[in-house]
Design a protein that fits this description.
Glucose Oxidase, domain 1, binds magnesium ion, eight-stranded mixed beta sheet, eight-stranded parallel beta sheet, alpha/beta, globular, 16% strand, Beta-Lactamase, binds phosphoenolpyruvate
């Protein structure tokens, strides 16, 4: 009701003074308070009484308190509410005779805050010594929030009257985003400011402008060539990305457009901007990830040219902190590399996805990145202390000292844990009672392969071939694919790699193919369904795999198999390619293993007819759980609703284990579940002996494996699996605690 009245007051078009007067009257009424006052922050760290009901009206605009002075100043300084039954006895109380407030004893005040910034303080007072309850404080906070919006919008005071004071009253903030790369880092914010103001628009000498542009273009090409020469850019997708970027600088169409603009009389810089604006106008609305990536690459190139043309440097290192956390709306891949790598600690983006070009480059540099962090640019000030926590997909801005200490401790603990896991690297992955457990890693980019040595994984249990397809600008031909797969096998150096054929569709969109318009993409035209309907595409991939193996052992896995016939058709295509390779005298794989992903529940009832045709089955629990529970795996509102430690999933998996084992077919689990120690413990206990997971999970899972007695765990699980009365996760945790299993 109160909020509605506030809105009505504003809608009446009253003057700012009338509006504020009405606000304090309404709030006093609502709170049954004799006094309600609003203090707003003015330049010079001063809180000024702007409106009051109950105090002497003549005190308005006269009573002023410094931030930190008196109770009002205290509320602003700490940006936290205060409720006192006897305010006058508080050590911070500062008596202001002009207000006539000596008769009021109790006081409650809340800061008026917007985007982490204190704009003022809202106070109520009563004669009696009363204690304001939590609900009342919450009401005040809600009103303060509305006031903050009104102040920010300039509805109640002109923005000139309340000046925001930099660095004052800034609150700690936690901003949630998504993990683009894992890890945790502490540093100071550097706001990436790519915008360059163009001063000269009209050319005085067209010939000279042409010359300036050509020089700038040559300079940019040289810059990118230098970036490409750096040691950490020598191979992998990040290099390819940078090379594609470099090709932009040779794009005839775009360069012609700039030249035409110069010929029409614009300066070099205005022409570059104009050419970019044209493209952005045409493509800016697109949500297509490929086009968005191209636009950010083009923006990066435009900025580079503008910097050269206006004589500025990309990143001026003077004054930048030693521990930089770069904060940007979005970025091109080369822009990140402009920052000094020795000082770069982390990256925060308002946009971005795990496969955006800048994220892949950041992954190669091994710095944590949090993306899709809402409004970070307006909520973070340059120089703010910041924690980028890629592991938990959050950014802590201006954290309090105790939080910082905790983070330092967490970083140390992480380093310690990594040391411990590194020490496990060469130790066997076997349980206390000597059951051997295969620990493999999942990979998708060539960069990921470096983790094979680091983690001591047995091999790659799931190589998602669609990932390299997704970061490319066009569909790779057979040779390009074969090159990539053979590099993967080279790095694996004899350790097995299971290549899964293209699993596009669903949430994985190929930029150059686009979404298929499926109403329900996860259950739509995806993975093997596309492969069988477009056999030429699948055959080309199989051909590339055979070419890459070039006689070495090869494992091929088909995704989303729902019926045995699908596998048989896919195998036929593989046989055709084997024949083709044979006819051409190519070395055939020394050992060829063919398997399927078990992601569609229907397959559980076809195992008898499936098993004779496969060498292995790998369970994709990410999709399996979503289909089993009819719960979209990407829907944040459903996240955590259905536990993958539910008896339903475990019993289904147990059933599969029991069917597969006697057939002599290998069984692995490669969904996210396999990489979580508690879940992995349950999987071992139902009989799974091969797990494939993200590289970071290998250490923790190995620690669990080495500390468990599998016999005990198996007996324990079978005794609780049929008793759905208690949450299994809790029961397993208790078991682990009782038996010193490291989870
Ligand atoms: C799965 O579904 O569990 C799986 C491993 O495949 P993806 O996550 O690539 O769909
Ligand atoms: Mg899947």
């Amino acid at each position: 009701m109160l909020l509605k009245r506030l809105r009505d007051t504003m809608a009446r078009g009253a003057t700012p003074e009338e509006t504020l007067g009405e606000v304090v009257r309404l709030v006093a009424n609502e709170m049954v308070a004799e006094v309600c006052s609003i203090y707003l922050l003015r330049a010079g760290e001063v809180l000024e009484l702007f409106a009051t009901q109950g105090l002497n009206p003549s005190a308005v605009h006269r009573t002023r308190l410094r931030v930190g002075e008196g109770l009002v100043g205290d509320i602003a300084a700490h940006a936290r509410p205060l409720a006192l039954d006897d305010a006058q006895r508080h050590p911070q109380y500062a008596y202001r005779p002009e207000t006539g407030e000596e008769i009021y004893h109790s006081l409650a005040g809340v800061p008026i805050v917007r985007a982490g910034r204190v704009l003022g303080v809202l106070v109520v007072q009563n004669r009696t010594r009363r204690l304001y309850d939590e609900e009342e404080i919450e009401t005040l906070q809600t009103i303060a929030m509305v006031l903050a919006e009104m102040v920010a919008a300039g509805h109640i005071v002109s923005p000139n009257e309340v000046q925001q004071v930099d660095g004052l009253g800034l609150l700690p903030l936690r901003i949630d985003g998504v993990q683009l790369t894992p890890g945790i880092a502490i540093g100071h914010a550097v706001l990436h400011e790519p915008r360059i103001v163009i001063q000269r628009v009209v050319a005085e000498d067209v010939g000279l402008e042409h010359k300036r542009f050509e020089e700038a273009l040559g300079g940019v090409r040289d810059d990118v060539d230098r970036l490409l020469e750096a040691d950490d850019m020598q191979s992998g997708e990040h290099r390819e990305i940078l090379e594609t970027f470099r090709m932009f600088a040779d794009d005839r169409g775009w360069i012609e457009r700039v030249r035409e603009a110069i010929a029409s009389g614009l300066t070099g810089e205005a022409s570059v901007q104009r050419a970019f604006d044209d493209v952005r106008t045409r493509l800016g609305q697109s949500t297509d990830p490929y086009i968005r990536e191209r636009l950010s690459d083009l923006q990066d190139l435009t900025n580079r040219l503008l910097l050269r043309l206006t004589g500025r440097v990309a990143v001026d290192p003077s004054g930048l902190p030693e521990d930089m956390i770069v904060v940007a709306r979005d970025m091109g891949p080369a822009e990140l590399l402009d920052y000094d790598r020795a000082r770069l600690r982390g990256l925060v983006l308002e946009e971005g996805s795990a496969l955006s070009h800048v994220a892949i480059v950041a992954r190669a540099l091994d710095i944590p990145v949090v993306g899709r962090a809402a409004d970070v640019l307006s909520r973070i000030e340059p120089g703010d202390p910041i924690v980028v926590d890629g592991d938990h997909a959050q950014v802590l801005v201006r954290p309090a000292e105790d939080i910082l200490q905790n983070v330092h401790a967490a970083i140390e603990a992480r380093v310690e844990r990594l040391r411990k896991y590194a020490a496990l690297r060469d130790l066997p992955s076997a349980t206390r009672d000597q059951a051997r457990v295969g620990l493999f890693m999942n990979a998708g980019l060539l960069i990921d392969m470096q983790h094979l040595d680091e983690t001591g994984a047995d091999g790659v249990g799931l190589y998602r071939t669609e990932i390299p397809f997704m970061v490319r600008s066009e569909f790779p031909d057979v040779d390009a694919q074969a090159w990539l797969y053979s590099r993967v096998l080279d790095v694996a150096d004899g350790r097995p790699v299971t290549f899964r054929t293209l699993d596009v569709g669903g949430d994985k969109v190929l930029p150059y193919v686009g979404a298929f318009g499926d109403e329900n993409p996860a259950m739509g035209w995806r993975a093997i369904r596309i492969g069988l309907d477009r056999p030429a595409m699948l055959r080309r991939q199989l051909r590339a795999l055979l070419q890459a193996a070039n006689g070495r052992p090869l494992s091929v896995m088909f995704p989303m198999i729902a019926e045995v016939a699908e596998l048989l058709s896919a195998r036929k295509l593989l046989d055709l390619e084997l024949d083709r390779a044979k006819r051409r005298g190519l070395a055939l794989p020394e050992r060829l293993r063919v398997g399927v992903m078990f992601e569609v529940p229907a397959l559980a009832w076809q195992l008898d007819s499936l098993l004779p045709h496969v060498d292995f089955i790998s369970v994709g629990t990410n999709d399996l759980l979503q289909f089993l529970y009819a719960a979209d795996r990407g829907n944040s509102r459903l996240a955590g609703r259905y536990d993958n430690l539910s008896p339903a999933l475990l019993r289904l998996l147990h059933f599969v284990v029991e069917k597969v084992r006697p057939a002599g077919v290998d069984l692995a689990v490669c969904g996210e579940m396999a990489g979580r120690p508690v879940e992995a413990l349950a999987l071992l206990a139902i009989g799974v002996r091969t797990l494939s997971m993200s590289p970071g999970a290998i250490g923790p899972v190995k620690a669990m494996v080495r500390s468990v007695d599998l016999n005990e765990a198996t007996n324990f699980l079978s005794s609780v699996l049929t008793r759905p009365d208690r949450p299994l996760r809790e029961t397993l945790r208790l078991f682990a605690a009782d038996h010193a299993v490291e989870i």
